[in-house]
Amino acid sequence: MKLSVIQGDIAQQNADCIVVNLFEGVSEPEGAADAVDQALGGAIRRLLRSGDFSGKSGSTSLLYSAGALPAERVLLVGLGQAAKFDLQAARKASGAASKALAKHSGIKHAATLVPGADGLDLQDCTQALVEGMLLAAYQPPNYKREAPERNLQAITIVENDAANLARCQEGVRRGEAIAAGVITARDLSNEPPNILFPLEFARRAGVMAAHSGMQLTVLGEEEMGKLNMNILLAVSRGSAHEAQLIILEHAPAGTQDDAPLVLVGKGITFDTGGISIKPSERMEEMKHDMSGAAAVTGAMDAIARLGVQRRVIGVAACVENMPDGNAFRPGDILVGMTGKSAEILSTDAEGRLILADAVAYVARFQPKAVVDLATLTGAIGVALGQQAAGLFSNQDYLEAALLAASKRSSERLWPMPMWEEYSETIKGDMAEVKNSGGRSSGVSSSAKFIEHFTEDYPWAHLDIANVAWTTSEKDALTPKGATGFGVRLLVDLAESY
Ligand code: BES
Ligand code: MN
Ligand code: ZN
After folding, report:
1. Would you say the CB of residue 350 lies under 6 angstroms from ligand 1?
2. 372: Cβ below 6 Å to ligand 1?
3. Residue 49 a catalytic site member
4. Which DSSP category does 276 fall into?
5. In the predicted structure, residue 386 carries a pLDDT above the cut 80
6. Exposed e or buried b for every residue in 377-412, given b needs 16+ CB within 10 A?
7. Percent of the chain with pLDDT over 90
8. How would DSSP label each residue in 384-405?
9. Is pTM, for the whole model, over 0.90?
10. Do strands 459-463 and 369-374 pair parallel, antiparallel, or not at all (unpaired)?
11. So what's the pLDDT on residue 73?
12. Cβ(455)–Cβ(368) under 8 Å?
């Protein structure tokens, strides 16, 4: 999508369609909408009076200008109630506009104003507009012989006041970088598991790093063996695909010696459950079990594109969990990088196992903070539905920073308890810890298991199993399949922490 910003009057734009935003409940269009309405001989007013267009968030209505305007069409887009309008409402309305525009093969080029309201910053609103437009236009990787149609190719953002152009342009730059990161994460997560196995994940991270100038290090099984990462390697033993620890580093000049923010992602490219095999119903969704690693990779992509002035390291721990004659078993006792022992009760509780060695590995960076993202438990969805990811942390400041980033990015987190008593449920009989605490307290005990292997850095764990993908489209911004959850949140954290 080609995005540009120009100074001018929306009513005068010679595009295939101009977009006019309206709040819910207004009967008299104002400003640019009024000018367009007058040119159309009051068509917008009539639509509002008839009740056919409500202005409700996400509602759209297409009008034909029949020569009354340079543009052939006018798309009315509802912004919802003015009093409730915020950046997420701007994203959603732009998403709805993007979807409505894309339906018409005659609309190749659209022009739009930036939706806004009192108290909202123009640059932020422009960024939200761009994020909404691009994320709603997302199309997953295509394996059909015929390529899907892409109608809309260019969007011109029209701003009245020349003094505001630079801020609009900065909003476009930021929105494009962040949407690109979210799309990187969605694409990785949506790819089929026979195509996206650990080596292919590493190859794609390499292509990305080469483009953005990030530093890439990849450890294979031999190197991880030398580091005693035996818990992670045990999960990989039943798979024909080699595990990969993928490390991306963004360190702009002058930040190389700073303590980095470290992001760690669970990258199970397919989770069969291993010997504790899963039921086959909906097992295909387990191709998304690398969504934590995908979010970390997408966030690193966006962070590099934005040129964030911080040192950030992203680690994708990529492993396939399969059963075969060589696979690890329930009952096995493993000793990993930290020297601590873990007893396996279920080979299906594999995410915490690969993270145990990954969070131990990152101690070498002397991190300012470590945040891991993982599709860790089915139980987090029982606790929170699809509305928020679970947030577990051992440090109040990091927890507060993540909650603030969550508010700003509208990627919801909900704090979950980390009381010491939860550790009781995972005390091992023959080893220090066991990898499952049984049916009760499933989410907190899994976080406790990971915490057991962290070193003395501030650490937080996000269980994204309930939000990383959806089985049906949630809203204009959230298509069926991978959501890219976490990218916008992590970019905000990298900039604000
Ligand atoms: N990847 C799954 C978690 C999951 C399940 C995510 C369903 C999304 C939907 C994870 O590896 C897993 O299997 N967890 C088990 C843990 C249990 C064996 C202690 C679970 O949640 O059932
Ligand atoms: Mn599992
Ligand atoms: Zn899993």
Report:
1. yes
2. no
3. no
4. S
5. yes
6. bebbbebbeeebbbbbbbeeebbebbbebbebbbbb
7. 97
8. HTTS-EEEEES-HHHHHHHHHH
9. yes
10. parallel
11. 98
12. no
- Pick the catalytic residue from 167, 305, 352, 434: 352
Ligand 1 touching residue 466 (CB < 6 A) = no
Chain centroid to CA 51: how far?
37
Q: How far apart are CA 270 and CA 235, in angstroms?
A: 11
The partner residues of 154 in beta bridges, in order of sequence, read 2, 109
353 lines ligand 1 (CB under 6 A): no
State the distance from the centre of ligand 2 to the C-alpha of 42, rounded, in angstroms: 59
- Ligand 1 centre distance from Cα of residue 378 (Å): 5
Residue nearest to atom 22 of ligand 1 (CA): 378
Nearest CA to 4 out of 180, 169, 170 is that of: 169
Q: Is 266 a catalytic residue?
A: no
Indicate whether residue 386 lines ligand 1 (CB < 6 A): no
Nearest ligand to the C-alpha atom of residue 463 = 1
Among 59, 77, 152, which Cα is nearest to 115's? Answer: 77
Q: Work out the pLDDT band at 19, boundaries 50, 70, 90.
A: very high
User: What is the edge-to-edge ordering of all strands in the sheet holding 73-78?
Assistant: 2-7, 154-159, 109-112, 17-22, 73-78, 60-64
Identify the residue whose C-alpha is closest to ligand 1 atom 9: 378
Residues 250-277: pLDDT tens digits? 999 999 999 999 999 999 999 999 999 9
Calculate how far, in angstroms, residue 45's C-alpha sits from the geometric centre of ligand 2: 56
Q: Is the pLDDT of residue 440 over 80?
A: no
What pLDDT digit, counting tens, does each position of 296-311 carry?
A: 999 999 999 999 999 9
Give residue for tokens 């006018």.
74
CA separation for the pair 478, 78 (Å, rounded) = 18
Q: Please report which ligand is nearest the Cα atom of 283.
A: 1
Indicate if ligand 1 lies below 6 Å from the C-beta of 348: yes
* pLDDT, tens digit, 9 for 90 and up, residues 30-85: 899 999 999 999 999 999 999 999 999 999 999 999 999 999 999 999 999 999 99
Ligand minimally distant from the alpha carbon of residue 269? 3
Per-residue burial over 116-138, b = 16 or more CB atoms within 10 Å of its CB, e = otherwise: bbeebebbbbbbbbbbbbbbbbb
Contact 75, 92 (CB under 8 A): no
* DSSP one-letter code for 51: T
